[in-house]
Amino acid sequence: MRIKSLATATLVVLALGTVSAASTSAQTNTGRRGWYRTAAMVEAGTAFNVRLDTKISTDENPTGSAWTGTLDQAVGSIPAGSPVSGVVSSSSQGTHSARARLVLAVREVTMNGQTYAMNATTQPIIAGTKTATKAGAIVGGALVGGLVGKAISGRTGAIVGGVAGAGAGYGLTRNALRTMQLKPGTLLTFTTRQAVIARR
Predict the structure, then answer these.
(1) What are phi and psi of 164, to 5 degrees?
(2) Which residues have C-beta within 8 Å of that of residue 68, sequence separation ≥ 6?
(3) CA-CA distance, 143 to 165, in Å (whole number)?
């Protein structure tokens, strides 16, 4: 009987130890999940500005092309000047029924020598819209017009040339807004789709 009692007591102790270990593990995991939530460097839905280091155009940069830039100001705990890299998530030339269009996405940001995943995108940048004008986008028809106007000389000539160039572009392509280019130094606004997490 004593042997059975000892065996029973041993099993009880082992069972209690297992429950205690599981409880400790659950608390630790919960703590880690909580730590990850509070360690977000940038929250989802945050808008920030990036200055392009590279030229991007619908002529030369198809969907999937890589680009680089830098943060124009601090965002969350990531300082201004931090390098970012991304891809052209959508690039299309203008046609007889559509304007040139670009959408860019940030995929990584580097801070203090460490690279972190980032998922952020621009609004569609469409030739001839306020968004494209604000970004300083160079549109095919407008560029041709500027050159013609310069040859005529004077501000009035530039306006006339702009109209002529746009008309010529439309005649050749059925759309004066066939191409679009973003120069190095262009400032674009991105919005994060997910939080940027510092996992250590």
Answers:
(1) -65, -45
(2) 52, 53, 54, 83, 84, 85, 86
(3) 8
Contacts of residue 77, Cβ cutoff 8 Å, sequence gap at least 6: 41, 42
**What's at 10, amino acid-wise?**
T
Mean pLDDT, consecutive 10-residue stretches, the chain (200 aa), reads 50 46 43 51 96 96 98 95 98 93 98 94 96 93 43 44 45 67 97 86
Helix/strand/coil percent split, the chain, to 5: 40, 30, 30
Residue length of the chain: 200
End-to-end CA distance of the chain: 54
- What gap in Å lies between CA 153 and CA 46, rounded to an integer? 46
- At 65-85, the pLDDT tens digits run 999 999 999 999 999 999 999
**Are 59 and 94 a contacting pair, CB within 8 Å?**
no
Q: pLDDT per residue over 148-184, tens digit each?
A: 344 434 544 444 444 444 444 444 445 568 999 999 9
pTM for this one?
0.66
